[in-house]
Amino acid sequence: MKKTITFLFLLLIQLVAFACPVCQRNQPKVLRGIVHGSGPDSNWDYVSIWITIIISVIALCLSIKWLIKPGEKNSDHIKYSILN
Predict the structure, then answer these.
(1) Are residues 51 and 83 located together in one domain of the fold?
(2) Average pLDDT score over the chain
(3) Residue 34 — φ and ψ, nearest 5°?
Protein backbone atom coordinates (compact mmCIF):
# COMPACT_ATOMS: atom_id res chain seq x y z
CA MET A 1 0.00 0.00 0.00
CA LYS A 2 2.85 2.38 0.83
CA LYS A 3 4.48 1.69 -2.52
CA THR A 4 1.27 2.52 -4.38
CA ILE A 5 0.74 5.78 -2.51
CA THR A 6 4.39 6.76 -3.03
CA PHE A 7 4.15 5.95 -6.74
CA LEU A 8 0.99 8.02 -7.17
CA PHE A 9 2.52 10.92 -5.25
CA LEU A 10 5.66 10.87 -7.41
CA LEU A 11 3.55 10.66 -10.55
CA LEU A 12 1.57 13.71 -9.44
CA ILE A 13 4.77 15.64 -8.73
CA GLN A 14 6.06 14.75 -12.17
CA LEU A 15 2.92 16.02 -13.86
CA VAL A 16 3.16 19.33 -12.03
CA ALA A 17 6.91 19.67 -12.46
CA PHE A 18 6.95 19.16 -16.22
CA ALA A 19 4.14 21.49 -17.28
CA CYS A 20 5.21 23.34 -20.39
CA PRO A 21 6.06 27.04 -20.04
CA VAL A 22 3.45 28.17 -22.57
CA CYS A 23 0.64 26.44 -20.68
CA GLN A 24 1.85 27.86 -17.38
CA ARG A 25 1.85 31.37 -18.82
CA ASN A 26 -1.71 31.03 -20.16
CA GLN A 27 -3.24 29.59 -16.98
CA PRO A 28 -4.60 31.63 -14.10
CA LYS A 29 -2.47 31.65 -10.95
CA VAL A 30 -4.59 28.97 -9.22
CA LEU A 31 -4.21 26.43 -12.05
CA ARG A 32 -0.55 26.97 -13.00
CA GLY A 33 1.33 23.70 -13.30
CA ILE A 34 -1.79 21.59 -12.86
CA VAL A 35 -3.59 21.76 -16.20
CA HIS A 36 -2.41 22.19 -19.76
CA GLY A 37 -3.92 24.08 -22.65
CA SER A 38 -5.70 27.38 -22.71
CA GLY A 39 -7.12 28.78 -19.52
CA PRO A 40 -10.82 29.05 -18.70
CA ASP A 41 -12.72 31.41 -20.98
CA SER A 42 -15.12 32.70 -18.35
CA ASN A 43 -16.33 32.14 -14.79
CA TRP A 44 -18.95 29.71 -16.11
CA ASP A 45 -16.13 27.26 -16.78
CA TYR A 46 -15.35 27.19 -13.06
CA VAL A 47 -19.04 26.71 -12.25
CA SER A 48 -19.33 23.73 -14.60
CA ILE A 49 -16.15 22.18 -13.20
CA TRP A 50 -17.34 22.52 -9.59
CA ILE A 51 -20.76 21.08 -10.45
CA THR A 52 -19.03 18.11 -12.09
CA ILE A 53 -16.76 17.61 -9.05
CA ILE A 54 -19.73 17.75 -6.66
CA ILE A 55 -21.74 15.23 -8.70
CA SER A 56 -18.71 12.90 -8.91
CA VAL A 57 -18.07 13.04 -5.15
CA ILE A 58 -21.74 12.37 -4.38
CA ALA A 59 -21.76 9.41 -6.79
CA LEU A 60 -18.56 8.04 -5.24
CA CYS A 61 -19.89 8.36 -1.68
CA LEU A 62 -23.21 6.72 -2.54
CA SER A 63 -21.55 3.87 -4.43
CA ILE A 64 -19.22 3.15 -1.51
CA LYS A 65 -22.15 3.33 0.94
CA TRP A 66 -24.23 0.89 -1.10
CA LEU A 67 -21.29 -1.44 -1.61
CA ILE A 68 -20.68 -1.65 2.13
CA LYS A 69 -24.31 -1.91 3.22
CA PRO A 70 -26.73 -2.50 0.33
CA GLY A 71 -29.85 -2.63 2.51
CA GLU A 72 -31.64 -5.41 0.63
CA LYS A 73 -33.69 -7.42 3.09
CA ASN A 74 -36.08 -9.14 0.70
CA SER A 75 -35.76 -12.93 1.12
CA ASP A 76 -36.10 -13.62 -2.62
CA HIS A 77 -33.38 -11.15 -3.62
CA ILE A 78 -30.83 -12.59 -6.07
CA LYS A 79 -27.96 -12.24 -3.59
CA TYR A 80 -29.50 -14.95 -1.40
CA SER A 81 -29.30 -17.46 -4.24
CA ILE A 82 -25.53 -16.93 -4.21
CA LEU A 83 -25.10 -16.76 -0.44
CA ASN A 84 -27.12 -19.92 0.20
Answers:
(1) yes
(2) 79
(3) -100, -45
